[in-house]
Fold NAD(P)H-quinone oxidoreductase subunit 6, chloroplastic.
Amino acid sequence: MVFLPETINSPGLYFLDLGILLGGLGVVFFGKIIYSALFLGIVFVCVALLYLLLNADFLAAAQILIYVGAINVLIVFAIMLVNKPENETTQKKRTFGDILSGISVLGLFLFLIIMILNTTWIQNSSLNPELENSFQSVDIIGIHLLTDLLLPFELLSILLLVALVGAITIARKEISPKIDKN
């Protein structure tokens, strides 16, 4: 028997959705980039809690470890390594590109809302007998990562490590010692 979570009317769902929405607005509208990065961490944590609420514990753990523990910390370190002057108070005027992107984002948002409202979200395991005999999601992910996706997974980790070392090398300001040639 497959457990299908029915948390659509759960009060926790509404609080997490509100946290994701307000965190996303904080990412976009705060002036200081460090505050935006911290609000991005709040969004990542709320998404992980949403996964827990939907009984996807592996996805929640991966969300916390990868996005909050690695990606968001990397973003904060990158912000701290780059010294941007904070005294810039110039006001940017709206351009045609800003208006066009706003209209595009609004259109995409309305399209997604229409698609969400027109989609049937009810699943019944008795209609699909393959769901009753399937593995757990963690088992399937583990089998794929350790068999047919092992080489791409390891190559991706090496690529990310090289990118991290390169970013630290570029961002680090090293003062070379002066050598007297007398």
